[in-house]
Amino acid sequence: MNTKINTICVFASSSNNIDKIYFDEAYKLGSLIAKNCYNIVYGGSNLGLMGEVVQAAHAYGSEITGVMPQKLYDLGINPGNCSKFILTKGMRERKAKMDELSQAVITLPGGFGTIEELSEMLTQKQLAYSNKPIVILNTNNYYGDLIKFYQKVILERFAPAVSSKLFYVANTSMEAIEYINNYKFEDINYIDKKIQLK
Prior knowledge:
This protein is α/β, with parallel strands linked by helices. Helices cover 40% and strands 16% of the residues.
């Protein structure tokens, strides 16, 4: 299991058509990641919040690894300010590589792809394939309804109560970085022992 954080995996929207409040917070996050001496691995695009985070992190000296599926690259999506750029066969390989290269996850507001990436990281941690910190950056309460749904999942016992520790909700970039700075790696059993897997 991991015991030290060097690189943060950032999941985020690639849309340029969203409110400025999200771009402002994404830039703050990128600058704080760099100022706290972390590197970034992300989806490789210069678009949307993805591009905003890495623009700030690059300006303040982070090493940035972009990971992009070949199909998106062939469509002409430009890489951002990457120190290293990796092409993968598809989306699944992309997520696996980003997971492999990071010791922490921060999820910014995003669409279906971002939510799917977050869900996979939560499942990986629940099944003890990972013990890395997972932060949901809840800018403008974007993830408020999703967080309520996670609480419903636990309340109705589709997941054990300890699952609430799978992730941390941060309302600001500063809260997100402070959580990662102070994170203690633990081996927690998130699986309900009463459930017999067949």
